[in-house]
């Protein structure tokens, strides 16, 4: 049973864990009931559903046109007319937050999705085949890991030019290696399990073994990590906006709103507080859900 | 084990080489011409050409790289494109604030993180656990630069307890360390919670309890010690990320450290300084990884290294 | 059995941590040691508000260089002027005044400039300031090898003669109307320093100025201390001045509020209304030479039609621009240059008129407007300005996409083109300030057809043969009334042809503690501390 799992597996509570081959239905049922027992995570999940609804129906919900400037009410504080006040152009902040939900979620979710797909493929290949492919992929992620992620993102945005799609690419690129490492370590332990060896001894092809036997074992890790990474992606995108490398600033991206509003912190704090709180709550919700998912999916946490 | 360590150590060299090539190419791919930025708004074309020549930027890229590498191997990091100062001197004058900042951030993050984690684990699924969990997850959900700005506003401007930035007294480090350490603290709290829970299930802990050992002895002497190793290992890994995070924090708090030097240099396309900084970041990060990796092998006999 | 390796590794970890800690401790001690040497000097970092005569000035970016002949950014020029002086200088209205020269004479043909020098002036290293020193400095500036930023300003100097120790005679190869302004931009370095360590001028500045160099850590601080032997009696009135680069607007203003800084520049416009009325903080404003405008690429459709360009000028409400983007602190740009620039001539027209704009667009064949993009730097006030322009132009049907780029990238986008046809820039929201306050500096680089990128900054790709000729004529003119008349023609013509959307003139806004006096920001954005005084 010699394997070369490295320390990175330490990041995942699932690493090194030999999961018994259970029937999928039973697992899902068990998971749902376990997840629902965690009230904090459940509330957070409800909040995310609400955010998704806002993202979809946002244009019908905004009390004002989010892009309409009104120079008569510059930086007005919260009032009956403008629940979250107005920004430096007199635009309604609540409307912009609602409108920006879609953008903010779209950027972070798609970045994490790309990172998850790439990372999973690389991790599966690396863990399953080992050898030079493994070394290549792992050294590649070492290289990516040796740059401060922010610089990597700045570099990518600087080369590709500003804009949301490039922010997505930048965030996806520095998210990929950690997925690859985690999936690799899960793959390594799954590879050694009895049923994989059984499948192999029955002459199953590699592709089939990966897809039918190993990939399902990595799904819990993928789900947990996706939910944990979305929060980080939102923060990363906001940081890029803070450095002026983010969304086209006319778009009501939350990070951009926060970054543009920071000069007004001491005179009109609501311009900074509301987008900051929106980001905070959203990231918090995703992290809580991720946490709940991890507890529910992690067999070690069984009582 | 010794052979494995040596192998890994030798493996660092090609990795650093690849990193240096990539950094070099990467930098020159980023649009922007340092000569033009130095020359200023109303520079003539002739002036700009002159600066390029002075800096050797008119040579083909591979020649620039060879030049750079041969200097590097002889220990010369070159001169800053922007200011003409020796890069080594610039780094020396900037390194201490960043080291202090990361060190202090790590120290409090480790302390508080462990505390929250242990309390959460011991009082699992009771209110201290919920409070601790919420606190930890909140900590990792706050945008760092926003937290920094809000802290300055409250504690420096409104209350006047701490300076707004700089590194003149020890007080200057408090707000930036809180900002920088917040994310790591949360992570460590989560990690130590799960690692404590794991340890608490181990047989020898149950045995200890069954033998009638006091609870604080069980937790303090046995469980904590075992999970501590893992937590500290993970914390070590985070040092590299702290250096990255210092970029943002040093900007917000005007700390003259390496992170801010990096931002300034990127804005100016100060290739020599960026290269030096990235190489340093990469080296320390790779080395920390290696050490943690080796330690982990020692720690967990289940993992064996195949050569 | 299990615990043995664990104990061992625990020990290893502790060891490593101990080593790291010891390393940190050592270095910390070293740095503490350094700090003591630094702080044993007049308490430069001490809180400002007290009775000490050490002041702290927070600015928004680093000094790029301390070589006074090689400075191209305003902050470096400010720093140079604390330690160095030129034959001539500027007053707070950007008029050229004598400094190290007591008087100057210009020959009829405009070719020979004779300066009489101050006597009994010494450099910080004790060297005498005299005609030979001036000659050595000009030689350094003109040396092609050095490739200094000032070289182009002295390209027309054919010879420098020193008939006696207090007289310097410059002979030009052709008349150069802005020459006195250029002389005012050339600080004098000690000839001894030039001879002994010409390579390290930057690290050890030696001039004749009111302050002497003490220490500079780029990115952290520049400290200058009082020159006890300064030639102007009674000056300077403070013991030391510390400049600190603080890029974050919020942090800079916080430093002023807490008293960590005595003076900040620039004062973020957004915050002015907040600190106004506070007893301990005073906000100073003064008209600048910094103009803000949008270049319209006159070689590209639809901006090739003068009606479109005029329509844009009618469509933008400049009063609202000042109010929204500049927080009311600024004025409309009513010419191609600011009223503080030499030979300014006021223009009228382009009052906000949406109907007129629409009519002009219709006449030009764009009744429904068109789509275009505007470029600018990704700094928050610039972005705000672009968003404002976008909102205004949307009202006349012009859909503008805002593209903010990081400075270096933007400069590359603009300057990497070799011919006007390749240029991709359509609209560029940008600012300009002629560093020596002269009309040539405010015109040639922006409107001469020789100055298309990458040679210059004519990003409107504006080409008018009359204007080209006038710029050359004015430069050679020896009569300032004549030059003034020529510049009036230039400004009128360009105003009518509207290669720019004329936006605004910045106000220089600085904030200071109320017990500080005499620190002034000049219209070009340089900070003058000669008469700084703590009360």
UniProtKB/TrEMBL annotation, chain A:
The keyword Nucleus does not apply. Pfam families: BPD_transp_1, OppC_N. It comes from Paenibacillus albidus. It is found in: Cell membrane. It is a multi-pass membrane protein. The keyword Cell membrane applies. This is Glutathione transport system permease protein GsiD. Belongs to the binding-protein-dependent transport system permease family.
UniProtKB/TrEMBL annotation, chain C:
Residues 32-41 have a biased composition (Low complexity). Residues 1-21 form the signal peptide. Residues 96-449 form the Solute-binding protein family domain. Its main location: periplasm. The keyword Transport applies. The keyword Hydrolase does not apply. GO terms for molecular function: peptide transmembrane transporter activity. Keywords: Periplasm, Signal, Transport. GO terms for cellular component: ATP-binding cassette (ABC) transporter complex; outer membrane-bounded periplasmic space. Part of the ABC transporter complex GsiABCD involved in glutathione import. Binds glutathione. This is Glutathione-binding protein GsiB. It comes from Paenibacillus albidus.
